[in-house]
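Hi L.,

As promised, Dipeptidase:
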Amino acid sequence: MCSHGGGRSPLVPSSTQQKMPDSSVWVLAPALTLALVLALVLALPSTGEQHLEEAERIMSTTPVIDGHNDLPWQLLWKFNNQLRLPAANLTLLNDTHTNIPKLRQGHVGGQMVVEEMNRLGMMVDLAHVSVDTMKVVLNISKAPVIFSHSSAYSLCQHRRNVPDDVLQLVASTGSLVMVNFYNAYVTCSDKATLSDVADHMDHVKKVAGAQAVGFGGDYDGVPGVPAGLEDVSKYPALVAELLARNWTEREVKGALAENLLRVFSRVEEVKRSLQGTAAHETPIAFEELQGPCRTRYGYPNGAGTARRPPAALALPLALALLLSVLS
Ligand SMILES: *[C@@H]1O[C@H](CO)[C@@H](O)[C@H](O)[C@H]1NC(C)=O
Ligand SMILES: *[C@@H]1O[C@H](CO)[C@@H](O)[C@H](O)[C@H]1NC(C)=O
Ligand SMILES: *[C@@H]1O[C@H](CO)[C@@H](O)[C@H](O)[C@H]1NC(C)=O
Ligand SMILES: *[C@@H]1O[C@H](CO)[C@@H](O)[C@H](O)[C@H]1NC(C)=O
């Protein structure tokens, strides 16, 4: 009915054409109202902010337990582990992904925990093994296993990531994939965003179920982390993104910590059920770690192995335990 642009509305007599501004006001009124409503909506917290608040609320009771953080390696590298040096103050440290204020801001309940479990040989970590080894171990392990910092192979064909057929074994064994944030594993390039990481979490959820998803940031162990996930203070932003993607509170809590705790208690149960079984205590020579079971994926020139003997040792320790766990 109303002519917005022509200025020749049949409802407006030509003698009042110079009053068009007045009639335009009426014509525009609904649009103005709409604009005002929009402005009011924008002044309210956006859905993004609401999700962030929701994330903070959830994480205040279920802080994240991340599968892999390399701060210990940074401390070794920077300070030769001399933690009494004034510069090694974990509150003031400012060129690492991890320090105490950032951990607090990120609602981090545990990192490195998993490595300690590995050291104690309590949980099998398949993050650094070949696909064949993943399959064999998932097939024979009595207890669920974890990938402490690996992402989805179908989204980025990096051999540190977990292929879909292995994700199905992860699902059938109640195991866990703690998604790595390293740009090179997320997008197979040197740039990535928080949303790309959420895509990996969505994918693991789609193929293996929400109970198979965890966080395995790899902070302080990698040179490039995604925009939006710059350091350990940013976990709540990723949780907000999962909420925005309609993850339920239960699924989010699972990914934050409860899935890992479930695997851990299952591992303990299996351990208890095998109390009478004799231990395999033959050590594995360090040189043997270069065998075909261990990947060099992601570590050109084998630099990763030379750089991180403790992580390299975690696997044989875990495998040694696994062997003792087999009937
Ligand atoms: C580390 O720095 C904080 C903040 O300046 C200070 O309160 C704390 O005493 C320092 N810790 C050590 C062990 O020096
Ligand atoms: C970072 O920490 C070092 C050592 O504590 C300090 O000398 C430096 O001024 C700090 N830099 C910033 C930007 O806070
Ligand atoms: C392990 O592999 C064998 C041989 O392929 C298969 O028969 C068996 O069902 C597998 N077990 C599990 C737990 O997947
Ligand atoms: C989340 O759920 C809402 C309401 O059911 C729906 O409109 C929206 O498209 C969903 N978002 C995603 C990313 O699935």
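The CA atoms of residues 117 and 174 lie 18 Å apart.

Thanks again for sending the construct details.

K.
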